[in-house]
Amino acid sequence: MASIKEVAEAAGVSTATVSRVLSNGQHVRPEVRQRVMAAVEKLQYRPNLVARSLRSQQSNTIGLIVSDIRNPFFTSISRAVEDLAYAQGFTVLLCNTDEDANKEAIYLQLMRDTNVAGVIFSPTLQTAAKLSQQSLDFPIVIVDRTIADFEADTVLLDNVEAAWRLTTHLIQNGFEKIGAIFGETSSTGLQRQQGYEQALQEHGLPVLPEYIRHTQPRVEAGYMAATALLNLPNPPDALLTSNSLTMEGALQAIRSANLSIPEDIALVGFDETPWTILVQPSITIIAQPTYEIGKTAAELLLQRIAEPARPARQIILRGQLNVRESSVPLHDRVIKSVEASG
Questions:
Q1: Distance in Å from the first CA to the final CA of the chain
Q2: pLDDT tens for residues 231-264?
Q3: What is the 3-state secondary structure (H, E, C) of the chain?
Q4: pLDDT by residue (tens digit) across 168-187?
Q5: Burial zone of 87 (CB within 10 Å; 0-12 exposed, 13-18 middle, 19+ buried)
Q6: CATH 3.40.50.2300 residue ranges in the chain?
Q7: Which fold, 4-47?
Q8: What is the pTM of this model?
């Protein structure tokens, strides 16, 4: 790879002149600028963006650290962040942590080393407990998570209300033995469990520890957790999952057990993904405004970069309950069963 010194020699100018041309500096004659750019093209020179940002104390790169890029929730957020960043002249450095606190520490250090302008981050509980504004060298926006005693811009779903609404929907449709699978590594799972328990208590139903499972937000983990619930002596008549990947695993477990949805067990969960509509029966879900979450996070970060001293903001968005076939009321199921047998 060519160096800036080689470009300068080819153009017959100093390295300082090459730097001024590449940074669109003033006081460079048109013919000199043309010679430099011709040398850049001929030698296929690419400037060291990190070194340039360190010298200028400015960067056009923002970091995005997500928990699992395979999760459609974070895929949509990533797209929104990149769309807005590109429109504003920024590039995005994307890192995937797999809900691993060690990887989070590595990527936060990477953000420092590359001198990013700011970071959008969805931390685990372990990392969130250690975050402090003094330890960060860049503006930060938290997505999909809450952090106690930490001043930062935040964008998230009203997780307690969303899980309360999803559980209440099941109860109103006649389901009383509701099992639930929650993520164990983030504040999101804790908040959704809170909403689930509130709905049960408000309707006079017990919160049974054996009906609650905490897992990694993975398909395989969802399968194992759902299988354990289905194998209980008194299994639930409905399952609520707090993540699209664990919901996929739960669906596989139900089918492996040769159970029918919703005749034998109802299934509901979070996130609007294509397969929830395509499968039979279609799945009742809380659709999160994922693109809006990502877009809002990127807007907040760019505002924070421009105005570092402004007060922190927390933006809470509301999910949409999309009722489908997987949670048909018990009464309707009885009628359909009678009609089929008659």
A1: 79
A2: 999 999 999 999 999 999 999 999 999 999 999 9
A3: CCCHHHHHHHHCCCHHHHHHHHCCCCCCCHHHHHHHHHHHHHHCCCCCHHHHHHHHCCCCEEEEEECCCCCHHHHHHHHHHHHHHHHCCCEEEEEECCCCHHHHHHHHHHHHHCCCCEEEECCCHHHHCCCCHHHCCCCEEEECCCCCCCCCEEEEECHHHHHHHHHHHHHHCCCCCEEEEEECCCHHHHHHHHHHHHHHHHCCCCCCHHHEEEECCCHHHHHHHHHHHHCCCCCCCEEEECCHHHHHHHHHHHHHCCCCCCCCCEEEEECCCHHHHHCCCCCEEEECCHHHHHHHHHHHHHHHHHCCCCCCCEEEECCEEECCHHHCCHHHHHHHHHHHHC
A4: 999 999 999 999 999 998 89
A5: exposed
A6: 59-157+290-317, 159-289+322-341
A7: 434 Repressor (Amino-terminal Domain) (1.10.260)
A8: 0.77
Which residues have a Cβ under 8 Å from the Cβ of 209 and sit 6 or more positions away? none
Superfamily in which the 59-157+290-317 domain is placed by CATH: Response regulator (3.40.50.2300)
Cβ distance 269 to 241 under 8 Å? yes
CATH 3.40.50.2300 fits 159-289+322-341, yes or no: yes
- pLDDT at position 58 is 61
Q: Which two tokens stand for residue 181?
A: 């699978």
